[in-house]
Amino acid sequence: MKILRIAILVLCLPITAVFAQTPENDSARLQARTEALFEQGRDLLDIKLSVDQMVDPTTNAQTVTSMIDRMADDVKTMAGGNAKSAETLTALKRYLYEAGAWNDNRPFQYDLDHPLGEKPANRLLQRYLTTRRGNCITMPMLMLSVGQRLGLKVTLAEAPLHVFIKYTDDDGAVWNLEATSGGGFTRDVWYRQKLPMSDKAVANGVYLRSLSHGESAALIASFLVERQIDAGAFENAISVSDVLLRHYPTFAYGLVKKGSAFSGLLRRELAGKYTRMEDIPADLKAKADQWYGQNMQAFARAEAMGWRPQDGQTE
User: Fold this and answer.
1) Residue 191 contacts residue 159 (beta carbons within 8 Å)
2) What are the pLDDT digits (tens) for 233-255?
3) What are the Cα distances from residue 201, in Å, to 100, 158, 307?
4) Taking the mean position of all CA atoms in its chain, how far away is CA 181?
5) Is the pTM of this model over 0.70?
6) pLDDT band for position 274 (50/70/90)?
7) Which element (helix H / strand E) includes 154?
């Protein structure tokens, strides 16, 4: 009996519901829209808002962008003229995480009311700006977006099911910033204690390194894969995964989600429909064998880089 590899992990925190019913049944069309996220000249905020619009068409990208631009202007004023990088970062942290007139005494905080992130809407940047309650996707994205507009050298980075920020100071030193905890400086060893990961995964750059622009775009767009799997649109999930993996071949999370999409196809087409192997039509059996092989191959590639089942919930 074949054993399927199934990953139910979701970046940051579990997400189980489909937020918007959108007409994305055409895998080729969705794949093209996903590929467009990697066009040259698009910044990460633009990419995030495009992804959010694909999940929730009511997302107003222009409004969100204007809000973030104004926030950056306010932080510049707070930091003062000719502020050094460290001074600008301090002002940014204060603006976001300390209550004051600059944020109407409504600082941005971790969403303790929904610690499991079970609501898809909570993954949307526009909602975070409205509620001021975020998670390890929206919080680093806001800090990154404002920081980049301030000229700070900030990028995204990954730990198991978690996203944080890498910041390079004026002397070239690189620091971790934990956006879910006031943007505080956090050592690699802390992440390794709280979110255990293999030495192999760290050595291979699966975790704890600064991501390139393209890799960050793939990380942001993985929300689309989750959404399609939740909707049972496994072909779409695979199409999106293929795009992400072309731009980020060592994206372990993307690999295991692709593997899970193939297992979803097998369950959908076979489970409860046939009592004997010989009852399965030959053409379907050929497809099922291919899907099974792709399922195992995706997990094998991720594990070869150091990803482990205990890096997230699996069954």
Assistant:
1) yes
2) 999 999 999 999 999 999 999 99
3) 41, 11, 6
4) 18
5) yes
6) confident
7) strand 153-159
